[in-house]
Amino acid sequence: MTTGAVSLYEGVRAYPADDFSVLFTGGSIGTVEGSTFASNLVIRAARLLARRAKFGGGVRHEL
């Protein structure tokens, strides 16, 4: 049997960018260039916040 630690949260960093994207780093998946898919929950939340705040730029998230 193999066991591993489970985290109930993820550290998220946000950086100014031209568009919205996600970069997954660390853990067992290594580094994966994230998606700009409209269905991604991080992207959806960031776009909603930007729209409500009338922010015209984008955000690159690192998880």
Between the first and last Cα atoms, what is the distance in angstroms? 28 Å
For the record, the count of structural domains works out to 1
Structural class category: alpha+beta
Query: Strands of the largest sheet, in order across it?
Result: 1-4-2-3
Beta content comes to 25-35%
So what's the overall shape? globular
H/E element string?
EEEHE
Which key phrases capture this entry?
alpha+beta; four-stranded mixed beta sheet; globular; 4 strands; 25% strand; 63 residues
Question: How do the helices and strands line up, and which of them pair or pack?
Answer:
Blueprint (H helix, E strand, L loop, with lengths): L12 E5 L3 E4 L7 E2 L7 H12 L5 E5 L1
Parallel strand pairs: 2-4
Antiparallel strand pairs: 1-4, 2-3
Walkthrough of the structure:
The termini are far apart. The radius of gyration is 14 Å and the shape is globular. Helix content is 19%, strand content 25%. The chain has one domain. The chain is built from one helix and four strands. A four-stranded mixed β-sheet has the order 1-4-2-3, covered by helices on one side. It has 63 residues and is α+β, with helices and mostly antiparallel strands.
Outline of this structure?
The chain has one helix at residues 41-52, and strands at residues 13-17, 21-24, 32-33, 58-62.
